[in-house]
Amino acid sequence: MLHPVGPLPASVYWRRRLLVLLLLVAVLGGGSWLGVALLGGGPEGSASAAGTSEAASTAPAAAEPPALDRVLPSLASVQTPTPPPTPTPAPPPAPAAPVQEAGAPCGDDVVALEVRTPGTVASGSSPTLELVVTNTAAVPCTRVLDKQLQEMVLLDAAGTRLWGSNDCRPETSSDTRTLQPGEQVVFPLVWTGLTSEPTCTAERVPVAPGQYVLRARLDTETSPDAVLTIT
């Protein structure tokens, strides 16, 4: 080994051995450096690896949306449905016109009652009052108009009854009539201007000045109130 033998000079063999030795050292050195680099043994490699690892561990946390945002959508992206318009309720149907059979007794719904007054009278005077009965049906009908079925009463503002037409002078009659469509029957009544009560036993005195109402009745049907002013 130390004294090479061959046809060439000894220096040639020594140079060959030195070249092989250098190649061997270079291969071993390069392999060691590559191993150290792969294992992160150097300071710069450690810092780089740590930085890379830290960035890798923090990057997903920064890029990942909050848990609430993943579960609930943003309010700005939610489309609120427009409620349908509230339908306008239909008006109630008009009341049906009363049906009256021709020639039959007039029903209360086709007979209109009205009280007519002078409007203003003097205290103690004897004004004439009128009960008006009208057939509002489109056909003729019959109605019992007996005096004992008719009555007028005078009421004050508090609703207290001060006078009644049947209290002291009740009348009776037998009066059944056939009323044509739109026909009116007028029953006049003279009032003495004095108070009364149903037994006609209390003292009768002139009704004091003021504003009162008169209300009429025909059997069970009543009229609207009519104003009477006494001065």
UniProtKB/TrEMBL annotation:
Annotated region described as Disordered, given as residue ranges: 44-64, 76-103
Annotated Low complexity bias: 45-64
Domain of life: Bacteria
Biased composition (Pro residues): 81-96
Annotated protein name in UniProt: MucR family transcriptional regulator
Species this chain originates from: Geodermatophilus arenarius
